[in-house]
Amino acid sequence: MKNKILRRLICSLTPLLISFSVFSSPSVDSARRDSSPSGYRIKTIIVDAGHGGAPSGTVGHFSHGASGSYSFERNVTLAIALKLQKEIEKSMQNVRCVLTRSTDDDVAWEKRAQIANENNGDLFISIHCNSLPDKVVHEHGRRIHVPDRSGKGVLLLVYGFHRTREEENAIKQNILGEDLGQNDNQGFDPNDPAAVIAMNSIKDKYRKQSIHLADLINDEFVQHDGRHSDGVIEQGVLVLCHVAMPAVLVETGFINNPDDEAYLNSDSGQDEIVASIIRAIENYKTEVEDASE
Question: How many CA atoms are closer than 13 Å to the CA of 20, on its beta-carbon side?
């Protein structure tokens, strides 16, 4: 059983073993789906509207997200995600866009990752709004919480190295089509040099592609829209490291900053955000597809 699974893993990863550059070969699951002479094509983009409201009739904890003086992150992210889906399918021929949620109801991060992997996504883009926690000041011996509205602009997140185990399991499930569970060494021997090389190749590929896409999106926000940016940062975002594809989380603005909140809730602001992401995706798509010719 182990040898059979290992052979399947290595065969699936063969395109990545040829070269280690960012765009010299496609992501593995996509390369497996499309071996046509025309080369790799981005076919499916997953757009994830962060957070959401509690489904009616349910109890328990739901991640409603950040809030401003009059708006909520879950509503802003859904509005942007719906516009982004429409523009992707309008401007990119033969590209399907799948939403992880299309209503106000929240979706658990595990389900979001499952939707992305089951749809064989080529890219995963998660839309969020940022917010700063209250500042604590001391007055007359008392600790007082004061809203901090100084945050402004965008931030791009990619998954950090400390989430390696989750990422490896997501890759194995997506490539092999089976859940290896906690005892995943049954099908993947960490002591086998070929298996380690194969796994490290795809992790390196996804990481480089994630960072490059994040850089492209960030450049559009800064250079085209003139927005302030805190750059591209590694962070242990669970949903990012559980999707077996290049993945970026876009913090579109600080919803608890009055200026950013107005921008995030305006049609013009949302349209500008969507247009910048579209340009970045189109540049990324051209690069990876041209490299595979």
Answer: 7
Average pLDDT (252-278) is 98
Q: What predicted TM-score, i.e. pTM, was given to this entire model? A: 0.80
Name the residue with tokens 């699974």. 5
| CATH number of the domain within which 224 lies | 3.40.630.40
Structural domain span for residue 279: 2-53+63-291
- pLDDT score for 34: 45
Interval 203-227 mean pLDDT: 94
Is residue 36 pLDDT above 50, yes or no?
no
- Asked whether 121 and 79 are in contact (CB, 8 A), the reply is no
Q: 209 falls in which pLDDT band (50, 70, 90)?
A: very high
Tell me if 31 sits within 8 A of 174, measured CB to CB: no
The number of folded domains in the chain is 1
Q: What local confidence, expressed as pLDDT, does residue 56 receive?
A: 57
Answer whether residue 100 is part of any domain.
yes
| Token pair belonging to 238 | 């669970």
Residue 71: per-residue pLDDT: 96
Going by C-beta distance under 8 Å and a sequence separation of 6 or more, which residues neighbour residue 284? 123, 212, 213, 216
- Please state the φ and ψ torsions of residue 136, each to the nearest 5 degrees: -105, 120
Look at residue 58 and tell me if it is in a domain: no
Q: Are strands 123-130 and 44-49 parallel, antiparallel or unpaired?
A: parallel
How far, rounded to the nearest angstrom, does the alpha carbon of residue 123 sit from its chain's CA centroid?
A: 7
Strand segments (E) across the chain: 44-49, 96-99, 123-130, 135-139, 142-146, 154-159, 229-235, 247-254
Taken in order 226, 78, 130, 204, the sign of the CA dihedral is negative
DSSP letter, residue 121: -
Residue 16 is assigned to a structural domain of this protein: yes
Model confidence at 39, pLDDT cuts 50, 70, 90, reads confident
The answer as to whether 142 is a domain residue is: yes
